[in-house]
What we know:
Blueprint: E1 15-26, E2 29-41, E3 46-50, H1 57-64, E4 72-77, E5 80-81, H2 87-96, E6 98-102, H3 113-118, H4 133-143, H5 159-170, E7 177-181, H6 189-205, E8 209-214, H7 217-220, E9 225-230, E10 233-235, H8 237-242, H9 258-264, E11 269-275, E12 278-284
Helix pairs in contact: 5-6
Amino acid sequence: MSLDNVPKEVETHQIVIRDLIRVYHRGAEEVIALRGIDLEVKKGEFVTIVGPSGSGKTTLVRIIGGLDKPTAGRIWVDKKDITRYNETQLLAYRRKKVGFVWQFGNLIENLTALQNVMLPMKVPGVRTKIKNPRERAEMLLKRLGLEDRMHHKPYELSGGEAQRVAIAVALANNPAILLGDELTGELDTETAKEVLEYIQELNKEMELTVIVVTHNPFVAKFGERMLRIRDGMFESLKHKALGEIVEIDAKGRLVIPEGIREVIGLKRVAQLIVQGNTLIVKPLEAPEETS
């Protein structure tokens, strides 16, 4: 894509990604993490990206957040091509435009919840319109149900409380985009649900654009739109239904990918029908187990 060729979607979407490729070199080995990703995200949208370990989802969110650079391809955020930013511009972008929430929270253990949230607003060299960091930190913690935990340190908080503090830290500088990478990975299901519901509320109230990457389909369902990634590429229904190539092992066993099973409604039992040189897989209801 030419540097002057700007997609029309840049005018209507907050994030536009085209032909994104990321290749890592580990000695003589070449690892292709992303293989020509295209993506558009509107302002205020909540998008989840689900995929297994090694699928490229973390690489993608790191590039969107300005923590890594693509090997090829372009990304526009609010009509600006961040792939052309220098290191100084990327630093400003990370501090002002995006907030990050990681699996392990990254809170500073010897600071209270309130102090952790105030810290990003006090980083030297970061211009901010926030006149009273303490007031904003208190507001965020109250909004996240942590009014009584402001003066507690991370080791005095539950897992869910600590992750909500991490969300408040990510929102401290009033970013336009919130990025999450396996942000509920260390939480039990009920606590994860609670944290994700808070993010849903913030997404709607603040018109906050949210992109969460996860391996967990339960987490992915909290977004307005769910995308699947595998081997550095997004799976579309058409790709899954018509273009999938699978292998048959030495014992004749066929492993049908999860994406295809979902499209055709295949659970545990199927009928195999042979028509000429074509094999048809027809989903059947599993028989009820008898004791």
